[in-house]
Amino acid sequence: MAGLPGASRARSASPGSPPALDGSFLVSPLGWLMCAQAVLGLLVWSLVAATTYHLHAAYGWVMFVSLFFWILTLLFFVTYLLQLHQKFYMIPWSLVLMIYNAVATVLYITAFVTCAAAVQPTSWRQWDYNRRAAASFFACVTMITYGVSTFFSFRAWKGLGSNAATSQVTDHA
After folding, report:
1. What's the rounded Cα separation, in Å, for the pair 20 and 18?
2. Domain-by-domain residue ranges, the chain?
3. CA angle, residues 119, 113, 75, in degrees to nearest 5
4. Chain-centre distance of CA 44, in angstroms?
5. What GO biological process term is on the record, naming one (predicted)?
6. Model confidence pLDDT, tens digit, residues 118-164
7. Which of 60, 61, 86, 114 could be stapled to 13 by a disulfide with Cβ–Cβ 3.0 to 4.6 Å?
8. Which among 33, 4, 27 is positioned nearest to 141, based on CA atoms?
9. Helical H runs in 50-83?
10. Are 11 and 167 in contact, with CB atoms under 8 Å apart?
11. With contact defined as beta carbons under 8 Å apart, do 120 and 59 qualify?
């Protein structure tokens, strides 16, 4: 896939060089999707956290999934933005990213279904209902973005288009 970082240029970060910002990553599909996942994930967990979620066990699961994957998405985002994935070329990043996105998609499906099923329209606190309903919607949208990322990660892993992992393997083989 031409939009992945490092697809159109040679490997620029060697293991001994300091991290450098990758501007092309920010305009790539992977960069856009990770930004969307970070923003949407933040919305999900902040909306749930703004309610009395501790009184309902179902929202504990939603909080865990959304916060866990929000933190991991930020870590992956920084890793790709600073080109740290090129410093650790022995790690199959396209495979790691594909597995991560697939697991995030599946767990966000469970979080979305849990969150949507636990919304009670007869809640005595109207603002809790509104926030939980909004959290359900954003959990669904976040799940879709992770699904799209899984598709693109699978294509990159299979080599259906140029990707950073292919250039890393050929540079160090």
Report:
1. 6
2. 27-89, 92-120+129-164
3. 110
4. 13
5. myelination
6. 887 766 667 778 888 999 999 999 999 999 999 999 998 888 755 45
7. 86
8. 33
9. 57-81
10. yes
11. no
- The span from the first CA to the last CA of the chain, in angstroms, equals 21
Rg (CA), the chain: 18
Cβ neighbors of 151 (< 8 A, separation 6 or more) are none
Q: Name which of 147, 141, 137, 146 is nearest 48 in CA terms.
A: 137
d(CA 33, CA 28): 9
Question: Taking all residues of the chain, what is their mean pLDDT, rounded to a whole number?
Answer: 82
What token pair was written down for 135? 């959290």
Q: From CA 39, how far away is CA 63, in angstroms rounded? A: 15
Q: How far is CA 60 from the centre of its chain?
A: 20
